[in-house]
Specification:
Length: 305
Amino acid sequence: MTNSIVDVTADAYANPGDQFERALEEGRILRFQPGMLPLPTEEDMDFLREEVGALITLKNISYHPDGDYITGMKKVGDTEQRLRAILRKYSDTVNGFLGAALPHYARSWHQQKVNFRPVQEKGRKIKRHSNNELLHVDAFPAGATHGRRPLRFFTNINQTEPRIWRIAEQFDELYKAYAKEAGIDPNLSVRGNPAERAWSGALAGLAKLGLPQLQVIGDTSPYDRAMRQMHNWMKDNDSFQKDPSRGEELAFQPFESWAVMTDAVSHAALSGQHALVATYYVELDACRLPERAPYNVVARGAQAA
Ligand SMILES: [Fe+2]
């Protein structure tokens, strides 16, 4: 997988067409050199690295643009307010910056959240299914994508330490090889039954009325449960994880950014500390290669296996 990375040049960025969307859907990672993305000020990045990290209470600290609120940190003094202002601005910056490279997605995508990840990934004491050090495809324990594709945009804001990833097979290969072992029903109806669809619709309606948290807590779908099965199976399987011939390592240097479809590219964060991560859901009908989307791989089910 020598061509797993696409370096985005200034010229290509100025005239993107759909080249970057296609590259993402082919399972490649877009990498942006330091200096392309406007970052928070030095003072604000010092604040993130030195003060905010100590206040973490969940796996990540998250800014939710829909409700303009923060989760995952202790509220001490005005730190939450300052963090909210920094991440709100960063969220807007990334919307513009990444949207310019991915114009077809940006017409209908939804920015779900912006994380700050202050904890060293290597050796982190955390539940196995939450452990980023293990290879996985992203699948969310709460909330449903209904086939929309999670696109994640990372920036390493550590001043000296690269963020080391391992990447391995793409979802279509994983599905073919392991869906049965992972317990995914090959005849699964990805859309679910009418009652489940009605429930999702009701939650989406409430979210539009200003209660986005409800959708995160209460929504699920057969497709999302299948993705979760694959995610958990990968993390639970030692022989899968420890096969030394599997995949390749990548190093993302300080202040580089990278974008990846994390439902398709299996990945692990082996080490690194201090990353900003913006998560988008890309609509399936904005995809250039929809047949490669995990939703359609699962929908094809037994025929694909
Ligand atoms: Fe992940």
